[in-house]
Amino acid sequence: MNGTATVLARKSLLSSRRAPGRHWVGDGFPVHSLFGYSGAGVAERSPFLLLDYAAPTTFGPTTQRRGVGSHPHRGFETVTIVFDGEVEHRDSTGAGGVIGPGDVQWMTAGAGIIHEEFHSADYAKRGGAFEMMQLWVNLPARHKMTPAHYQAITDAEIPRVALPQGAGQARVIAGEFMGTRGPAHTFSPMNVLDLQINDGHRVEIEQPEGWSTLLAIRAGTARIGDEAELHPTDLATFSTQGRSIAIEAQGELELLLMAGQPIDEPVVGYGPFVMNSRQQIEQAIIDFNSGRFGGIPSSQSSQ
After folding, report:
1. What is the pLDDT of residues 188-201, one digit of tens each?
2. Which of 12, 21, 258, 290 has the most CB atoms around it within 10 Å of its CB?
3. What pTM was computed for the model?
């Protein structure tokens, strides 16, 4: 965003779509799959592979564990952003913890990881509002087999940038926005912004020329120039050409912006593995089945 009178060429809206209905991931996450790593548009969304959105819902109190038990990943990163509720994570590196509203966990699966994700025990007991997003970010071929790693990022660690003229704010999770850098370490250049735009305000959001740019709407209505009107669970994909997006808020607007330098490499995925060739997928399956991903330490594993 620029306070000068400079007029930047805008990124064109390539497509917009309403997410399909919800499906359950485990028994704790009813999600809309806004996009995945197969089918049309994969190259236009690179370096982003998948986005699941658990739109606002309410869970009643329970003593049961709700979530997803241990499962593997290789070749990419998962970014879990909690807006309401709490998620507890454990993995085969020994890392783990609970993230709550505003917190983010950035997990690098790399060469291989096994992890589990549940509602936290405290949240399960009290129940209440729940909302989260999980984004999958591709790794360049040279980093596909990097050691697995876990970044726990609290809400307090995520800087907030005020938008001009009282238009709202941006939480900078990764990359840089208006001179402020986010805390997440990434393997390729990208920006991940949690945006809040006040009703009636219009903003120009700048993103680099040559980068893919996506918007996922959580609340409110967004008018994109004269091109489209977006509602909750809608996804918009923009051209790499151009350097800005005009967004007008109708109602209090909340959205996730994802922008990144495309990774111009083959994307071959099979369930929880995303690599560059079928042979690499087959090797990932062999490595997982032979125990080379390790396991969640018994002292860490949720019971």
Report:
1. 999 999 999 999 99
2. 258
3. 0.95
Asked if 108 and 149 count as a contact pair (C-beta separation under 8 A), the reply is: yes
Phi/psi of residue 155, each to 5°?
A: -55, -40
Q: How many angstroms separate the CA atoms of 223 and 257, rounded?
A: 15
H or E element in which residue 194 lies: strand 190-197
Which amino acid is it at 72? P
Q: One-letter amino acid identity for 186?
A: T
Written as six digits, the tokens of 234 are 């809608």
CA–CA gap between residue 267 and residue 275 (Å, rounded): 6
As given in the structure block, the two tokens for residue 251 are: 């109602």
- Write the single-letter amino acid at 56: P
Distance CA 265, CA 248 (A): 35
155 touches 102 (CB < 8 A): yes
**DSSP bridge partners of 244:** 10, 206
